[in-house]
Amino acid sequence: MGRNGGRMISLSRQLYSFYRQGFRSMVVGRTLWKLVAIKLFIMFAFLKLFFFSNYLEHNFTTDRERSAHVLENLTRMPSAP
Amino acid sequence: MGDQMLTTVDWARAQFALTAMYHWIFVPLTLGLSFLIAFFESIYVKTGDQEWKKLTKFWMTLFGVNFAIGVATGIILEFQFGTNWSNYSWMVGDIFGAPLAVEGIFAFFIEATFFAVMFFGWHRTSKGFHLFSTWMVAVGSSLSAVWILVANGWMQFPVGMNFNPDKARFEMENFWEVALSPVAVQKFTHTTSSAFLLASLFVIGISALFLLQKRHQLMAQRSMVVAAVFGLVASGFVAFNGDESAYHIAQRQPMKLAAMEGLYNGQEKASVVVMGIINTSKKPGDTLPVFHQELKIPGLLSLLANRKVDSYVPGINDLVYGNAERNIVGAQQRMVSGKIAVAELANYKAAREKGDAATAASALALFGQHKQDLGYGYLNNPEQAAPPVAITFYAFHVMVALGTLFPLVFLMVLVCAYRGTLANQRWLNRACVACIFLGYLAQQAGWVVAEVGRQPWAIQGLLPVGVASTKLAAGHVQTTFFMFLTLFTLLLVAEIRIMMQQIKIGPEA
């Protein structure tokens, strides 16, 4: 590991300390991070999971099946906007 | 297509519009405010004046609030692609999947590094590196908007690709043709410069509020001067690339231009309608008047559209029914060609499944001759090729009227600042506060013109929205529509509340 390895560890510690102190000294940021966390939880653990499954991923197993399905829609879809 | 299907498509469209419009409340402020903060901090670094530092940190806090509330609201659009617009999503995946993913990763690294230095690094890094990080956040924010706007530009003017009938996908043939298409470049420049304009209005409006309240007057006046200069320059760009935009629309999406101006019958020396009350009963092909009242400037539309005052600008009727005299192919004729394309695509698919190579080759050859009209093959009648005219017309005119007003406001701010009377001009300060709302209105109106004006197309001329969508129960999409409405409204309320708290505290925070 040698000198370079030591520098890497030191740099990692400095970075860790930089982010840690930054997060600890936040004022408005704490509220904002809570909001971001709630929002991401609602989006990914609720909306995405229960309401927004990827239709083609969910209903077909291979790309061949997916393209066949879309081609079927393109050639059967009777109409319009 | 039955009523149920139409309802599903309508809800899916409404949901996408709702999400995009809410998303666009947060994005332009992030794009524009990041540059203003970089200007403020540059002045601080140059002068060493602590007032500029205090001012920079205040606007940075509001930037942080807006960023945190708005972050990831765009991901919901991607959820919708996979669920509500699966056909579209599959068809364009080859073109946009990778660049959009790269853009997401790029944005993440910019934000995780320079964003952190910008907020946490005031006492932990050198002045120079902190300033560099602030500029990197500004440049990175704008760069992270590139691909999504290139994607939007491609949907309005699909180039550099070929349709692969075996995979049912558009495949990229020329990366640079897609990335540097004039519509994509114009879309990026117009969108980002209008975002700079909005952020300038935001800074001027909040600062004017401080002046009205007789608080933080030095900070407010300094902020207003920098924002007014930036806003004025941005207004110039917006006007310049707005004119370019109109030209490209005239050449590539003439139906949209006709709807923007309520032009039903094409004309030489076509007029720009400065103001007008549109007749909402008017339909393509009928003889009803287009306007109840209008004020026109003759020849200006021809000049804007073709750079020649006496040139012919096609109207909605020309583009729906065709005009042999002017050599304009209408939707009516393109439908015939489009239906051949759809039928031959079906024949190709059937022949391929049967292993009939000769029939497949012949169907593919015929499809190739008509594929440029594929989307028209799904229309039931040519009138469906026209977008909702009244919405497009009013949105366009609101955007242009406000875009004309804003530089005047910036000029007045600069004149009053020069005379040293800015703090006493209560009427101007009130107007500046109102301009925050008007700025957002102009932004939303711009997107309404871009997106409603290109209906019925998901991909111009190739894929109507009805075919792009997934066959889902309307109730499903309706439910998620109201979920998003609730979620986004709560986020917006949270943003306004937290921002108001920070504004109340002021730069001492």
Structure, described:
The complex is a heterodimer of chains A (81) and B (509). Chain A is mainly α and 81 residues long. Chain A has helices at residues 2-24, 28-51, 55-59, 63-76. The termini of chain A are far apart. Chain B folds into three domains: 3-253 and 387-505; 259-326, no CATH class; 331-378. In chain B, 72% of the residues lie in helices and 6% in strands. The model of chain B has no long low-confidence stretch (mean pLDDT 92). The longest helix of chain B is centred in the N-terminal third of the chain and has 45 residues, at 3-47. Chain B is built from 18 helices and eight strands. The chains are: A mainly alpha (81), B mainly alpha (509). The interface between A and B is large, with 43 and 57 residues.
Describe the structure concisely for a colleague:
By secondary structure, chain A is mostly helical.
Distance between the termini of chain B: 58 Å
- H/E series of chain B: HHHHHHEEHHHHEEEHEHHHHHEEHH
**What's the number of domains of chain B?**
3
Q: Fraction of residues of chain B in helices? A: over 70%
Main beta sheet strand tally, sense and closure of chain B: 2 strands, antiparallel
Strand order of the largest sheet of chain B: 1-2
Helix content of chain A: over 70%
Mean pLDDT of chain A: 83
In whole angstroms, how far apart are the ends of chain A?
Answer: 64 Å
Class from secondary-structure proportions of chain B = mainly alpha
Q: What percentage of the residues of chain A does DSSP assign to strands (E)?
A: under 5%
